[in-house]
């Protein structure tokens, strides 16, 4: 976090010192609420990490949008905060609950036993977290759990096969809905409508909490034309609570926005006909295969469903001048992994030929980076590992 005196250099007119940046910001600000008040960090999984600057106004307005859009504050509502407040995910949800005058129950750190006890003791109605938290509930509570007070478990997926997790947990009393957010647009920016079928309800994205104050569109990265409903491209967002810039990084700030003020999220997704949207993956993680823009999670889900496979990660590399997918997997039995060729033959029964990985390598674990919201996979390191392996093929 940063105090209101934190500096911001968000203009594209060249480099300034922190003091000059702050002085410029202060002179332009109409009120104290327009001054920088907090910094969030980007995860840096596809590019270098940056400091994201928000003002008191963008922060306070967004948490009020959450409180209204998520219908916080009904009699008996209570939030269990299981995420650290140093990150945008934990902080935004806690402040939104406070804005709605609903109780907030804080956890020192997340563990299933304590969380289960607190949910029952305080009749918790709302929780926000990751699919990893939900997976721990599933693993450590094999019997159905009667959390009758829960209204919403909003989650962000950091790994594949979360639809299968939802199919297991929703019937057990976990009202799961997919979310979308980032340091730049804030967490809990949107949530999937509760009336959608399960498979759609747990996808990332949804309807913005700020409603008509926000515009979401999708742009084809090659033609730069706006995409029609159902066609994938880069998600662009315009909202009154967007971040004000990257700290002391005017070049990155200028590149992050379109000329008409939309933030270029760097995320792949598509619009639905009902006005909601779906997040698929980071643009840096997508692959151009057979002339099509491919979401790696599609291939990962098919791989993870093969016999003997616990989880998989897919990245794109160039092989003999052609873009190809390659895969890494963790075997259920690490001492005796399944045959890679047999696994790929199984994948071929489901996937189009151009999506089948050219190689499959088994590893003990995937490279990850820690964040306030949990572990995130580092596909950049997987690409480097793939290229190293290809050099020795």
Give the amount of beta strand, in percent: 25-35%
Oligomer: single chain
> What is the first-to-last residue Cα distance?
47 Å
List the uncertain runs: 1-23
- What CATH first level of the largest domain would be assigned? Alpha Beta
Give the strand order of the largest sheet, numbering strands 1, 2, ... along the chain.
Answer: 4-3-5-6-7-8-9-14-13-11-10
How many strands? 21
Describe this structure in words.
By secondary structure, the chain is α+β, with helices and mostly antiparallel strands. It has 2 domains: 18-210 and 234-265, ANL, N-terminal domain (Rossmann fold), CATH 3.40.50; 294-391, GMP Synthetase, Chain A, domain 3, CATH 3.30.300.30. The chain is 27% helix and 28% strand. The protein is built from 11 helices and 21 strands. The chain has helices spanning 18-28, 56-69, 88-99, 112-122, 131-140, 162-169, 198-201, 250-256, 296-304, 340-347, 379-391; strands at residues 36-41, 51-55, 79-81, 104-106, 126-130, 152-156, 176-182, 186-191, 204-208, 215-219, 233-238, 245-246, 263-271, 277-282, 287-289, 292-294, 309-319, 322-331, 360-362, 368-371, 374-377. The strands form 5 sheets. The chain has an 11-stranded mixed sheet, sandwiched between helices. A hairpin with a 2-residue loop joins strand 17 (309-319) and strand 18. Helix 2 (56-69) crosses helix 3 (88-99) and helix 5 packs across helix 6 (162-169). The longest helix has 14 residues, at 56-69. The chain is globular. The N and C termini lie far apart (47 Å).
């Amino acid at each position: 976090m940063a105090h209101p005196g934190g500096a911001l250099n968000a203009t594209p007119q060249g480099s300034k010192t922190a003091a000059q940046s702050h002085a410029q910001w202060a002179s332009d600000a109409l009120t104290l609420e327009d001054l920088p008040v907090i910094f969030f960090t980007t995860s840096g999984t596809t590019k270098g990490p940056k400091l994201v600057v928000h003002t008191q106004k963008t922060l306070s307005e967004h948490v009020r949008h959450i409180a209204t859009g998520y219908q916080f504050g009904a009699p008996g509502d209570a939030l269990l905060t299981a995420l650290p407040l140093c990150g945008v995910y934990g902080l935004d949800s806690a402040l939104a609950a406070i804005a709605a005058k609903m109780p907030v129950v804080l956890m020192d750190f997340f563990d299933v036993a304590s969380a289960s006890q607190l949910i029952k003791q305080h009749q918790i109605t709302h929780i926000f977290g990751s699919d990893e938290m939900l997976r721990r509930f599933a693993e450590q509570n094999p019997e159905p759990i009667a959390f009758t007070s829960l209204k919403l478990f909003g989650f962000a997926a950091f790994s594949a096969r979360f639809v299968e997790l939802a199919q297991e947990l929703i019937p057990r009393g976990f009202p799961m809905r997919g979310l979308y957010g980032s340091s730049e647009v804030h967490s809990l920016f949107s949530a999937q409508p509760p009336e959608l079928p399960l498979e759609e309800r747990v996808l990332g994205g949804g309807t913005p909490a700020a409603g008509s104050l926000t515009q979401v569109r999708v742009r084809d990265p090659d033609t730069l034309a706006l995409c029609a409903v159902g066609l994938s491209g880069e998600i662009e967002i315009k909202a009154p609570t967007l971040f004000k810039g990257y700290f002391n990084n005017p070049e990155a700030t200028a590149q992050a926005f379109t000329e008409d003020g939309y933030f270029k999220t760097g995320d792949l997704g598509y619009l639905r006909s009902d006005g909601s949207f779906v997040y698929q993956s980071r643009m840096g993680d997508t692959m151009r295969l057979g002339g099509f823009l491919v979401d790696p999670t599609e291939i990962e889900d098919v791989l993870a469903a093969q016999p003997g496979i616990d989880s998989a990660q897919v990245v794109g590399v160039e092989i003999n001048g052609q873009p190809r997918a390659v895969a890494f997997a963790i075997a259920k039995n690490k001492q005796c992994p399944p045959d890679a060729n047999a696994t790929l033959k199984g994948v071929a029964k489901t996937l189009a030929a151009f999506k089948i990985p050219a190689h499959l390598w088994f590893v003990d674990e995937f490279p990850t980076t820690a964040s306030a919201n949990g572990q995130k996979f580092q596909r950049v390191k997987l690409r480097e590992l793939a290229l190293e392996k290809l050099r020795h093929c």
